[in-house]
Structure formats: C-alpha cells, structure tokens
Design brief:
Organism: Lachnospira eligens (strain ATCC 27750 / DSM 3376 / VPI C15-48 / C15-B4) (Eubacterium eligens)
Protein name: N-acetyltransferase
Order of helices and strands: EHHEEEHEHEEHEHHEEHEHHEHEH
Distance between the termini: 42 Å
CATH class of the largest domain: Mainly Beta
Strand order of the largest sheet: 1-2-3-4-5-7-6
Largest sheet: 7 strands, mixed
Keywords: Plasmid
CATH superfamily of the largest domain: Hypothetical protein
Length: 349
Amino acid sequence: MNNIIKKTFEEINLQDPFFQSLRADYPGFDDWFKRKSNQNAFVQYIDEKLVGFLYLKIEKMHVEDVVPPIYADKILKVGTFKIDAHGTKMGEQFIKIIMDCALCEKVDACYVTIYEKHKSLIDLVQQFGFELYGTKGKGENKENVYLKRMNIITGDIKKDFPLVDYKSVKKYLLGIYPKYHSVMFPDSILTTENKNIITDASYTNSIQKVYVCSMKQVEMLKYGDIVIIYRTAENGKSAEYSAVATSVCVIEEVKNQNEFNSFEEFYRYISKYSVFDKNDLYHWFRQGGCKAIKMTYNAALKKRIVRHDLIEEIGLERNQYWGFFEMTNEQFKKIIHMGETNEIFIDEN
C-alpha cells in the first residue's frame, strides 16, 4: 500500500535514513522532532520505506520570523515537507492534504519555507498557487518563503486549486459507474463531517483525473467548466436512492482518440491519472469514439445528494440522460449548498 497515513511523531522512526537530509539542513532537528512526540504528521511508505513526510501547523494573526511578515487571521504553516520519491502524482497527494486542511480549518493563507536547492519541491508548490513571497533566515540558513492566499482566484485552475471560479463558466453533471468512481474519488465515498475529511480520507487520490468515455457531447466541455460527479446506481439497487452526486471537478481539457497517432500514445496520455485497465482501454479504442476528460478533483460533497433529491429538491429533469448534461447556475448553486461545500467558492451567495 502506498497510501499516505497519519501517525504521531513518536510512532515514526527518527533514525530512518529519510531524515538525514533534514537533519543536515536544520540544526536541532532531532530535538524538535522529539518535542513533537504527541503531535501528528502525514507519512508515506513504499515497500516499507519512508518516502514522504508532512507536518502542518495552524498559526494565528501573524508570522514575524519571515521577511516581510505575514499578516492574516488564520494561517496554515507547512512546517516540514519532504518527498523522496519522484513523480507528480505523489506530490499531488501531499498538496491535496495541505489544501484539504486549509479548507477544513478555514485559513486565510498557507505558507512553506524551502531551500533554493530543492527545485522539484519549489516547482510542485508553485504549480498549485504558492508564490515567492519573501525569505526566512540568513546566510547558509536562508530559505525562500512561498505563500498561497486562500481568497484569490487567478483563472488558472491548478494555481487556484482547490478554489473554483464558478461565475463565468458552464456547469454539467457527469455520470460515472460505481466500480470506477470509488477508485477515482476515494474520499467521495465517505460520509464526512467538517474536519473528519482530514482524519478519515484515504489519500490514494491525485488532484488530476482522467476519465475515458464515449458519451456524446462531452467534447463541448471547455477549460474551467465545472462538473458535478454523479455516481450511478449500484447493481441491484434503485437509482432513486443509490445514485448520488458526490464531487466537484474542474475541466482542464477533453481529447478525442483521433487526436492521438496510436493507442500507445493515447494510453500514455491517460494512464498516469486514470483507473482503467489497459486491455479495456484497447478494446474501447478499437471500437472508436473514446474521449479523455482531464480534470482537477477539487472537493468531495460533504453531504452526498441522492437522485431523488436531485430531482425533487434541486430541480433536475427526471427523464433526461443522466450520463452527461448541462445544468443551470441556480441548480448548481443548490447542489453546492445542499452538499455543504461552499468553502471552495469565493464570494458564494
């Protein structure tokens, strides 16, 4: 299992070789680590080898040991963040934890300090909206400070993540079969309340997703459009109460299989962020009409909404095709309110 898990510091082996570079970069690291014995960190193991570590801390009002100081009512500090294994997907898993915590704690800003030599880590945080803000320390101990404000929309869906610009884009419902849904959106299968998303969610998921289908009209999706993910009915159960709206995603792009020169090129494009078996994909590719939908996974609805309520309370049309359709702004807003997921929207009324 490569899942990121939460452990107390005292449950983590300080003598693991993973910590050698942190020990070299930060004098007094061992003493600091021991003082945190009862606090929590997120760790990832691959083949029982520690490859990732993340410690988060909430700070109030101001941070004055950086230049310039950071002033905000509530600030999330990424206290210690190291990844050994290379690969965008693993980094995204940790970024998602940081952002989930930021939303749950309703912080105004997040920041992380990184030595200039750690280029790949800097690139990762900048992809998701952390901008160079200032410095901390002097001389050999000087680190750059990267800050992300949680109340600003730029129009770049990755930099804005997990925030969503809903005002000038179209909104759709996208149906996904249960066997694919539960793997693509693992925290969306949970009934989560408030901060439980941080404790209970299984972080096998990346921020970016690719879903493959042959449904007509999905090619009309444009960059920035929003889709409500709809898990279709479970086998043997009525759709009325087993089919549910679960998640909010934002479209990056849609590609038709004809845009690829071969199946292998098509497979390379989707395999990193897709749950589909290669043999199944090849079968569908030969049949023709495959479309790859690339999107960011911005939030799980805290309260899932069953089909019955989507029809009776939200006002969606019962007799339309529930694989893919456009919804009105008013219907979308009702889903967000009923799903208790307002925090990913700026100035939501």
